[in-house]
Amino acid sequence: MPDGTRGTQFGTGRGTSPVTTAKAEAAVRHPVPRLTVGVEEEFLLLDPATGCVVPAAEDVRRRVDGRVANGLVPELTQFQLETNSTVHTDLGWLQRELLEMRGAVAVAATEVGARLAACGTALHGNAGMPPLSVGPRYHAMLKEFGAVLRGQGVCGCHVHVGIDDREEAVLVSNHARPWLPVLQALTGNSPISDSVDTGYASWRAMMMGRWPSARPPPYFRSVRHYESLVDGMRASGVILDRGMIYWLIRLSDHVPTLEFRTADSCATVAETTMLAGLVRGLAATALRDVRAGVPAPRIDDTLLNAAWWRAARDGVEGEGLDLLSGGRMPAWDLVGRLVEHVRPGLEESGDWPVVARVLGRLRRRGSGAARQRAVYARRAHLPDVADLLVRQTLASPADTP
Q1: pTM of the entire predicted model
Q2: ATP-binding: present as a keyword of the record (predicted)?
Q3: Does any domain span residue 2?
Q4: Is 1 within the bounds of a domain?
């Protein structure tokens, strides 16, 4: 899509959300801040011959060295790995690092007979209790939550944006939460689980939904309110520690960031980079509104959860819930609204050309979920899907999505 093309390509020519006087004034009086961004990506280890998961994470980690090793951490199961990028202000440098990390881990995976795949759910071989990673925390989770762990081992893409003031950060969450279903729809990349098409673009979202806290976050009155809810969850046993705060937007406890957790593991580096740009633009736009005193919309939790479910169900190829009218509309029209909302921030940060280009390709070629389904529909052969996932994971951004 040409850089000068406006949101009409995404359906914003009609049904556009109204711009309030307060927002218009905020845009004039308060520039959109430029925020830092970092990304956590979770991956599966697959057997290319069968599409089955391979519990070889520790072997892979031991074979990775240098700076990539510093950002490579274990996950819940022995067939998952997570990479953590460094902090960036430029999407181009973030994209280069993501590709470097994927490449290094993929080489190590090949050395142990596995392949690295960016996908939200295992294609095959994870129907029961997964092989947990070594460590007391994971086994404490098994003891407390039992069968909730069956079939777990799902993979997401988490974007961190730098916001030093925690009070501002929770207010940014309030402004950003209505857009979580749109981000979910865009990044659906887990239609297949246990060898069948689930009917969902993001089966990962449904699997994560087994955890009591894995939902869009509530509307927070303050940091004190946020912490009181966390304390209540810990007292009830819903979470064992702060790492189990699975809200789709949460405060980070180890770095001064706000973490967006709604996306599936993105099939390509290009799509991850697009997501990082959209999230940064959304957070920056929200922070501008917070500083201008613009109140966040009070979306009912039930309606927001319904929109999140619909996004996981249909993805971007189907319909989404319009939180303004309560009716359904094409998901790409909702993407258009998001683009219109955050475009000033994208242009201010220089992210617009990257985001626009990938969105255009995504609309033409289909989402990660649609691409998996297209391959699987040819002959219902899981290794074909595994091959697609492996190729996409290492694809050059110039050739994707």
Answers
A1: 0.92
A2: yes
A3: no
A4: no
